[in-house]
Amino acid sequence: MVWLLREGDALVLPQPVDAAYVAHVGAMMDFGPARMDLLDPQDRGVRVLSQQVLRQPEMLARLKKLVAVPGEWEIRAYLPDRGVSALALEIGLPGAAVSAFDTRGGAELFNSKVAFRALAAGIGVPVPDGAVCATSGDLERALERLAVPTGAVIVKADRSGGRAGNLLCYRDAGMTAAGAVGTHPLNSDEDRRAIIAHTGLAQSLAPHGQVVPETYHPDCRSLCLEVHCPGAHSGPPRLLNVGEMLMEPIWNGFIMPAQSIPSRVLEEVVGHTLRLTGAMSAFGYRGPVNSDAIINSAGHVWFNEVNARLGGCTHLHHLATQLLGPHWQNSHVLVSHNDPPTASIRALLNAMDRDQLSFNPTTGSGVVTTGDDTLNQGTVEYAALAPDLESAQALDRRLTNLSVRGVVQQGAAAPQAGPAVAVWTGCGRLRR
Q1: Superfamily of domain 129-215
Q2: 92: left (phi over 0), alpha (psi -120 to 50) or beta
Q3: Residue among 105, 118, 125, 170 at smallest CA distance from 292
Q4: 221-409: in CATH 3.30.470.20
Q5: Whose CA is closest to 123, among 376, 303, 353?
Q6: Each residue's pLDDT tens digit, 184-227
Q7: Residue ranges of domains in the chain
Q8: pLDDT band at 96, cuts 50/70/90?
Q9: Cα 231 to Cα 286: distance, rounded to the nearest angstrom
Q10: Whole-number Å distance between alpha carbons of 184 and 234
Q11: Paired strand residues for 224
């Protein structure tokens, strides 16, 4: 979210941000860190900006003071759910700060895997054979049927992100798992009972929500396509980027733009994506959309889901556009990774400078540290930019093998949070 800031903006985050990281982003994006407000809860145990956290009296008071002139502000939320709309009204922003569609749960509707399958079926977008299950009996029957083609079924929670709600159920223990955090064998009645228990489905209800089992197609390439929907009366949806997702075994980065996709397949995927987002736009949604698709070795395409929110590639596309220009995908390749272990963002940035890895605007090549989670997980996110895939991958390998990694892990100082000037999102961002 920090990459999307402009001077005068405010950002609400669940945790403080290291001042070194903000300075790094500001230097790359040409903004002064002192000219924006970064707000976070005072409770350092907070991990998610829940409605309870955002409605703490101190947080509400800080937000109301920040937006004392309502006409100057709008909200850009990570996910513009009904909670964002309610909060906007509570802190004194006018109703126009969020759309009536979002206020009534529209964006949430398009983040549902159940709703996605209905939308895709209605407009002819290909999806894996699957089912929507509201009871244990539904799922038991679906597991048997959907496992027949490939010997595996992926069971998805209706509303869950980052593959955390996905369970791969397999008959062959040697099958490569991609796109699921958990796995479970599917060879006996006991296995089926355990899978059903995992979902929480009962004979007559789904206390934790419906689940979507689908036939699992192994050994596929995974694509993410990002589109901007300006709104039904402001023009058609516009394709921003097409990236290949690195699945190791779950998503761990991107290659942007996707490489070596046959033109026929790419045209098909883009066409389906624009029809999907066109239907969403006509229904009332405006904002970013990220859709996921898989392609097997024969060139068959299936769409997995659509997300009406910011995606894991949003900030990467934004920073590459700012650093290299609006047509950067015609001249450069970006390779990103999400979780190299690093205990100190400051030490990593210093080592990148020392080893001449940092992005050089003159050559248009180098590495950018695109995310800092050293405080919670001891990891960072980075992106290597270069004129071709081979050069970007070489930069990627150099950072992976960076000698500072051992130094950092052996006792560099813990990151220090920068001074919090003010605040906004986990829900979203306030833009002046």
Answers
A1: ATP-grasp fold, A domain (3.30.1490.20)
A2: left
A3: 125
A4: yes
A5: 303
A6: 999 999 999 999 999 999 999 888 899 999 999 999 999 999 99
A7: 2-109+417-431, 129-215, 221-409
A8: low
A9: 5
A10: 47
A11: 243, 292
